[in-house]
Write a structure and sequence with these properties.
2 copies of one chain form a homodimer.
Chain A: H1 11-26, H2 33-39, H3 54-79, H4 84-101, H5 103-111, E1 118-120, E2 125-127, H6 130-145, H7 153-172, E3 176-178, H8 182-194
Antiparallel strand pairs in A: 1-2
Helix pairs in contact in A: 1-2, 1-3, 3-4, 3-6, 4-5, 4-6, 4-7, 4-8, 6-7, 7-8
Chain A binds a DNA duplex (30 and 30 nucleotides) through residues 1, 3, 6-8, 11, 32-34, 42-46, 48-50, 53-54.
Chain lengths: 195, 195
DNA sequence: TTTAAATGTTGACAGTGTAAACTTTTCTGT
DNA sequence: ACAGAAAAGTTTACACTGTCAACATTTAAA
């Protein structure tokens, strides 16, 4: 059913890969189905055999970007295996860095309508996407180490995620102009909160 | 020079107004120069007599949206003239509410490349846009009332703005799913921080 | 009142997403 | 092994987009 040697090898995978390449080369505005098809050496309607429409291809690319974003955060945790506080600070930095270095990715993972939800319920916070779970885990460890009242864990986790997310977007979108090291800025901000 | 009764009255102004109408009706994806021109009852290239290109019209519309956003925040301040803490909480709520009620506006004020910068320097934080200055002022008043060390005012102000901004975007973009009242959520989060 | 500038229109062009009809390759059931 | 179905890709077509050049008309300036 889902075998892999047809006319063009695995075109589906190829479209996603070249989509990412195009995205990095021309940004979200220069992104088009037809260009991706051309990069794959295929007619401009071939993508429709694999994706319902442009949006669906973008959604798949977004999944790919989510994976590399999640792994950037996971790297931050691995950098300080025993220190949840430093994990959080490092994650904040990499969160910003990731979006600043590849601002096109931002449009794909946070701006497209194919949102990846974070569920907030009475009992806690869960997500379909690794990135948030990684962050959430470090937060939990930090709260335990700092003996924070469990009743406020949820609010505090959300607060930190919002804070990091907000600053990352402000910086990546150049709404926030800082003459100096952005890494220092976000570090100060997180230290400010965590102490 | 800049008079106002030509062939079509003041087309420039009319384009911005109808641009906003179209935006509300069809969202950012359905937005096109030609549709705006049609709404003004004018040929599809007429806008080029007033704007260099599509981007420039969007930029002007964004300015308009910024004004109403700023005034939404100013209203929050006026609602609690003597209580900076409640001002901040109310601003957080209206920040979220504004973007949730009109998610299309979000693309225009925060996502377009015509970013409105917030300047962060050694001495303090300043912005060309009213919205941030309003927020910044309340924050300053709160810090004084709460006797917070002036050395950390800058970080704390940025922290709060980032937090509110981040949550507003997560909620408006439906990255954050909360079964309940979002206003309560952001209120809890801010109270959590301000206490 | 003549002339220039400002404003608006028509027509064209390349690029876009997508649908329909068709062709070719591969898979499946007998 | 073969017939037919399904999958994958192509061609053609269409409506829509932003933008440019050439032209027309109205208004302002000399």
């Amino acid at each position: 059913m889902t075998s892999n040697t047809y006319h063009h090898g695995d075109l589906r995978k190829n479209l996603i890969e070249n989509g990412l390449v195009l995205l990095n080369k021309e940004g979200i505005d220069g992104f088009s189905l037809r260009k991706v098809a051309a990069l794959c050496g295929v007619s401009h309607t071939a993508p429709y055999r694999h994706f319902k429409n442009k949006e669906e291809l973008i959604h798949e690319i977004a999944q790919e970007v989510w994976r590399s974003f999640s792994s950037a955060l996971a790297d931050a945790v691995n950098a300080y295996p025993e220190n949840p506080k430093l994990q959080i600070i490092e994650m904040g930095k990499r969160y910003v860095q990731f979006l600043v270095e590849k601002p096109e990715y931002l449009s794909f993972i946070f701006m497209s309508d194919s949102a990846i939800p974070i569920q907030v319920s009475k009992t806690g916070i869960h997500s379909q996407v690794d990135a948030f779970n990684v962050f959430s885990e470090s937060a939990k460890n930090y709260f335990h180490a700092a003996s924070i009242d469990p009743a406020v864990h949820k609010e505090k986790t959300l607060l930190m995620w919002s804070m990091v997310h907000g600053m990352a977007l402000l910086v990546a979108k150049k709404n926030l102009i800082y003459q100096g090291d952005y890494m220092e800025l976000i570090e100060n901000m997180l230290v400010q909160y965590l102490d």
